[in-house]
Amino acid sequence: MTDRVDWTSSASGPLRGDVVIPGDKSISHRAVMLAAIADGVSQVDGFLEGEDTRATAAIFAQMGVRIETPSASRRIVHGVGMDGLQPPTAALDCGNAGTGMRLLAGILAGQRFDSILVGDESLSRRPMRRVIDPLRAMGARIDAETGGLPPLRIGGGAALRGIAYSAPVASAQVKSAVLLAGLHADGETDLRELHPTRDYTERMLSAFGWPIRFEPGRARLWGGHRLHATDVVVPADFSSAAFFIVAAILVPGSRLLLRAVGLNPRRTGLVNALRLMGADIREHDRREEGGEAVADIEVRYSRLRGTAIPADLVPDMIDEFPILFVAAAAADGITTISQAAELRVKESDRIAVMATGLRSLGVRVEETPDGAVIIGGSLRGGSVDSTGDHRCAMSFAVAGLLADAPVRIADCANVATSFPGFFERANECGFALES
Ligand code: S3P
Fold first, then answer.
1. Neighbouring residues of 178: CB distance < 8 A, sequence distance ≥ 6
2. Where in the chain are the domains?
3. Cα separation of 421 and 423, whole Å?
4. Which residues on neighbouring strands pair with residue 228, listed in sequence order?
5. Is residue 201 within 8 Å of 179, Cβ to Cβ?
6. What is the pTM of this model?
């Protein structure tokens, strides 16, 4: 249990400088997972030293995988091969990480031993039926608590069969759980999605030498192959960069440069949304690193106008809505968000947490079942509760830069799940954040 941390964020001068953003959370989870069950030794560079991704590494260590940390953000993973994981002697604790739990469910469904996946208070409230249903259809033995909630109990020794599955929710976690179970299944696993989601599992399986065919909206693989160790370079996490992107846009006179940020198109919907609102965001030196598009992103203060966020951008910016709420609160006019009901089952109900918090800062926000209507204007100081949601806490820290008096933010310790060092980096570039 981490100690409770509260922050106060106040208005400051322009934000200036270069900000180093830590490694991508989604890619870091997957790199450790695939390296652990590959043949040979893989090096992961740029690994996110966050609580979520460290929990995933610790889980594989519990199952007998040797993982060295020669320096911060680097892991050397001694893969044990497809059948080399050892039965854990205790429950496997995913902490706050939905990605950890759902992807692990896919990997563990095909093992010969029993396992139990547990999580913290927030993760224990998140829906797991979305992975249980397809995994059971593949032959997995997997049970949850009433209502499909964690802990997940996974029975070993199940014979998995490939599946043709159309995911009813746009979710990279569901897709990935099914594909990872498909590694241990007989025959073909054919996954279709309503709307394409981040394709890191597909790309990384391919980089580790597993035969897979994929295109936006569909992925197919066949069981019975092996993964071959490979080195992974993790780009900076766009979702962490997003707080600085919006902060620089909103604080007059600001200019920030964010280096080597991952720009996978399934992640960067926020850039498109902000550009629609009038933002000045420039990409420099676009290149490929570790098979992913990256660029240095330069952001300058821009006056934003409210807009209707196009529904087809929603899955491409699913983690960025808390900070978009803040951008909308400071824009001229009305911003509407719709078809984003998934936000209600993230680390918190992000529609409710952001609407409640912004209302306490004097912003007019109306919640709808699948989104919100936000009327831009000015922000006043006050007290808000992040409810332990890392992205809501960082979003309120940005809101504090714009308010006419300090904003007190409760329950910020979980920022360490995805962005250790946010507090220091924010203050280095001009935030006035105190704890
Ligand atoms: C993730 C997928 C998304 C995202 C989460 C990370 C992943 O979740 O919100 O932060 O790494 O696959 P869903 O699959 O629930 O949309």
1. 106, 131, 134, 135, 138, 163, 165, 167, 189, 191
2. 7-20+235-434, 25-233
3. 5
4. 39
5. yes
6. 0.98
CATH T-level topology, domain 7-20+235-434 = UDP-n-acetylglucosamine1-carboxyvinyl-transferase; Chain (3.65.10)
Residues designated as active site: 319
DSSP 310: P
Cβ atoms within 10 Å of 391's Cβ, excluding its own: 28
Q: Is 40 exposed, middle or buried (0-12, 13-18, 19+ CB in 10 A)?
A: middle
Q: 309: part of which helix (H) or strand (E)?
A: none
The answer to whether 413 touches 372, Cβ cutoff 8 Å, is: no
Enclosing H/E stretch for 112? none
CA 130 to chain centre: 17
Residue whose CB lies within 8 A of the most ligand 1 atoms, among 26, 34, 234, for a mutation test? 26
Q: In sequence order, what E strands does 50-114 have?
A: 66-68, 74-80, 92-93
Q: To test the ligand 1 pocket, which listed residue (99, 234, 324) has its Cβ within 8 A of the most ligand atoms?
A: 99
141-157 b/e (C-beta count within 10 Å ≥ 16 → b): ebebeeebbbbbebeee
Same CATH fold assignment for domains 7-20+235-434 and 25-233: yes
Q: List the chain pLDDT tens, one digit each, 435 residues.
A: 557 899 999 999 999 999 999 999 999 999 999 999 999 999 999 999 999 999 999 999 999 999 999 999 999 999 999 999 999 999 999 999 999 999 999 999 999 999 999 999 999 999 999 999 999 999 999 999 999 999 999 999 999 999 999 999 999 999 999 999 999 999 999 999 999 999 999 999 999 999 999 999 999 999 999 999 999 999 999 999 999 999 999 999 999 999 999 999 999 999 999 999 999 999 999 999 888 999 999 999 999 999 999 999 999 999 999 999 999 999 999 999 999 999 999 999 999 999 999 999 999 999 999 999 999 999 999 999 999 999 999 999 999 999 999 999 999 999 999 999 999 999 999 999 999
Order across the sheet with 16-19: list the strands.
Answer: 16-19, 255-262, 292-300, 280-289
Which residues, in sequence order, are CB contacts of 16 under 8 Å at separation 6+?
Answer: 254, 255, 256, 429, 430
* Residue 225 Cα to ligand 1 middle (Å): 26
What letter represents residue 109's amino acid? A
* Ligand 1: residue whose CA is nearest its atom 9: 319
End-to-end CA distance of the chain: 19
The CATH H-level superfamily of 25-233 is Enolpyruvate transferase domain (3.65.10.10)
Which residue type, as a one-letter code, is found at position 196? P
Whose tokens are 């704890």? That residue is 435
| Nearest atom in ligand 1 to 170's CA | 16
